Automatic annotation (TrEMBL), chain A:
Stretch list, region Disordered: 98-152, 365-401
Identification of the protein by name: Uncharacterized protein
Annotated keywords: Leucine-rich repeat, Repeat
Any one GO cellular component localisation term in the record: cytoplasm
Organism: Coniochaeta pulveracea
From TrEMBL, chain B:
GO cellular component, one term: nucleus
Compartments it resides in: Nucleus
Family matches, as PANTHER family: ELONGIN-C (PTHR20648)
This protein's name: Elongin-C
Nucleus in keyword set: yes
Keywords: Nucleus
SUPFAM superfamilies listed in its UniProt record: POZ domain
Native source species: Coniochaeta pulveracea
Family statement: Belongs to the SKP1 family.
GO biological process, one term: ubiquitin-dependent protein catabolic process
SMART domains per record: Skp1
UniProt keyword Nucleus present: yes
């Protein structure tokens, strides 16, 4: 024994080589400190003073202490005082705010998507250094000296300043009691808005306003007034929106006019109080179904988007369909919905990794090609083999249509559920095309968007297996004594084509498809570039 | 008679072996949810796995392979059902399981 200083420990169990690299929820990290031994966990061990039979544990009453780190780091260290122990926190949370904190040291800013490397790289593992006299947790608490030495790339701090700026503006509005939050024309891009930007807004409750006005009934005086928040984000450069924005329950007006949005998150449907939604002049090709559902109660401004269109249909054919659809008993007086389903496009099927397995591919925006004939829609059920250019890579086995989610999908769902309690972590999409990285980026996107649900079976899912576009139309019926009158002008296709609202629906399995609802899918024209 | 042996119907069960040597005896039909295993066991290919009905996975640990096998049974039991219950996967093996799913081609 050449190393008598160190107490002997039982040998670490033999672990397979893959164990250290991929270890479940414990994130791999890269530290430039040189370790003398392989490290299997980034989490510090936690043990209490009960584990240490040292005499000074019994000298000052029986206060159980918690230590963090390797136990042999503490064996020669002075026992921490009781005050220090009481305010001990897990250092990870404290440090992760550090990069984003303002110069005066406030740490109210949540970690942004770009700075997550600090979140996971700061918890240094228990090292066996003996040069220190302080316990490991004390060294790692965010002291001001350490803060200065932290690597802080210039772009991250600049971005953090912009994130902070947006939050500050929202805070100012809350503090001054303004219900209109005006963030227009600020050249905001995706990095300026993080999921936690809107956290305060979603928690906002107005203090009841007590008026000594005798005209008001007493019961109304002390009621909570619902705040009516107007959020104006127009003329910025946003391409996506965090799902947390839509948990602002009292949002009544949302203006996203003049951004670069290509898609709206399905979480938009949570905004039940939204009365006005301005999404004009974006790059939307379709709307989430949740927006379609909102239409009867919400004013939606849509112009200036390049929405999917439908190939022109002959007028006679349409008139026939129209009468079959709207002359029957379907138009009931009691039906409050004024949005009608008219038809759908073919279904695109993918596997969990995102490879397209059907012969139909949804047209990309701006692409003129790939205008599939409607007859080429492929029905996946159990007997057909899937064709496609990826046949070699996806193993030429018959793909069974089943409602059972794939193993990768189940993993992804489990990861989403587990990450919901934590701050949002942006897993970099990376160039690697393997299933692991693609699933991880799908998980992070799902967390950012606030989840999505299958159009058919309503199950929450991560990766869509089937996608298709449905077309809806908004009709304003006038009611007469004879019943509901459908505007005649909409029975000609020319007019209908202009009012169609495309909605992208997603199914969670190859069985969650709309077959049987419409005899023949429509042919979709990709949006003009 | 040995010529008949190769054409005899293969056993209903196959054995999957993890890196530590844990063996899982699984219904052959259930393993077909992985295209990789299905190919390994294809009698037309005359591979050692197909002959012995035994697949060894040196990359997959026992904990992960156990979950994979559980998924296979889950898939086999519910593949034709309309109402599929959720399957729980502990988060700490998710990434390893994803790697295994990638290897086994279980993204369908």
């Amino acid at each position: 024994m050449d190393d008598n200083e160190e107490p002997t420990l039982p040998l670490m169990p033999k672990l397979p080589a893959s164990f250290g690299t991929v270890n479940g929820r414990k994130r791999a990290f890269q530290l430039d400190t040189t370790f003398t031994e392989p490290v299997y966990s980034s989490d510090l061990g936690v043990f209490s003073s009960d584990d240490d039979p040292g005499l000074d544990n019994y000298a000052h009453g029986r206060h159980k202490r918690r230590y963090q780190g390797a136990w042999y780091d503490h064996i020669h260290a002075p026992a921490p005082t009781a005050e220090k122990v009481s305010d001990q926190v897990t250092p990870r949370k404290a440090i992760c705010n550090d990069v984003l904190s303002t110069p005066n040291g406030q740490s109210s800013v949540p970690p942004s998507s770009g700075s997550t490397w600090t979140t996971w790289s700061q918890t240094s593992p228990p090292s066996s250094q003996k040069t220190t006299s302080l316990p490991a947790w004390a060294q790692m608490s965010p002291s001001s000296s350490q803060r200065a030495t932290l690597p802080r790339p210039a772009n991250i701090s600049k971005q953090a300043a912009r994130v902070q700026d947006v939050i500050q503006q929202i805070d100012d509005c809350i503090d001054t009691g303004m219900d209109t939050i005006d963030l227009t024309d600020q050249n905001l891009d995706d990095d300026c808005i993080i999921p936690l930007t809107f956290e305060k807004l979603s928690k906002l409750r107005l203090v009841p306003h007590v008026e000594l006005d005798l005209n008001h009934p007493v019961s109304e005086k002390y009621l909570h007034k619902d705040s009516k928040i107007k959020l104006l984000l127009s003329n910025n450069a946003l391409t996506r929106l965090p799902g947390t924005l839509f948990s602002v329950e009292n949002l009544t007006t949302l203006s996203l006019r003049g951004n670069d949005l290509t898609e709206l998150p399905p979480a938009l449907g949570r905004c039940r109080n939204l009365k006005e939604l301005n999404i004009a002049y974006n790059k939307l090709t379709h709307l989430p179904f949740e927006v379609i559902e909102m239409i009867p109660n919400t004013t939606i401004y849509l112009y200036g988007n390049k929405l999917y269109e439908v190939e022109r249909r002959s007028e006679e054919e349409w008139a026939k369909q129209w009468h079959a659809r709207f002359s029957g008993e379907e138009v009931g007086k009691s039906d409050p919905a004024r949005v009608w389903y008219l038809g759908r496009g073919p279904v695109q099927l993918t596997d969990t990794g995102g490879r397209i397995c059907s012969s139909y591919t949804l047209p990309a925006s701006g692409g003129a090609g790939n205008r599939m004939q409607t007859t080429s829609e492929q029905i996946p059920p159990s007997t057909t083999r899937h064709r496609g250019q990826h046949q070699q890579s996806t193993k030429s086995s018959p793909a069974l249509a089943t409602r059972v989610p794939s193993l990768a999908e189940i993993c992804a769902r489990s990861m989403v559920v587990a990450s919901q309690s934590e701050p949002y972590v942006d897993v970099p999409a990376g160039d690697a095309l393997d299933l692991v990285s693609r699933t991880c980026s799908a998980v992070s996107q799902s967390l950012y968007q606030g989840g999505q649900w299958c159009a058919i079976c309503k199950t929450p899912f991560v990766t869509a297996r089937a996608q298709w576009i449905e077309f809806y139309i908004r009709l304003d019926f006038s009611e007469s004594s004879a019943g509901v009158v459908v505007p005649r002008s909409l029975s000609n296709w020319q007019t209908v084509g202009e009012y169609l609202l495309p909605s992208l629906r997603k199914g969670c399995s190859w069985k969650c498809v709309p077959y049987g609802r419409e005899p023949e899918p429509w042919s979709i024209i990709p949006p003009r570039p | 008679m040995s010529a008949f042996n190769s054409s005899a119907p293969p056993s209903k069960y196959v054995t999957l072996v993890s890196s530590e040597g844990f063996e899982f005896v699984v219904l052959r039909q259930a393993t077909y949810c992985s295209p990789t295993i299905k190919k390994m066991l294809d009698p037309n290919h005359q591979w050692a796995e197909a002959k012995a009905g035994r697949c060894v996975f040196p990359e997959i640990s026992g904990v992960v392979l156990e979950k994979v096998v559980e998924y296979m049974q889950y898939w086999y039991a519910y593949r034709e059902k309309e109402d599929v219950p959720d399957m729980h996967i502990p988060v700490d093996i998710c990434l390893e399981l994803l790697q295994a799913a990638d290897f086994l081609g279980m993204d369908q």
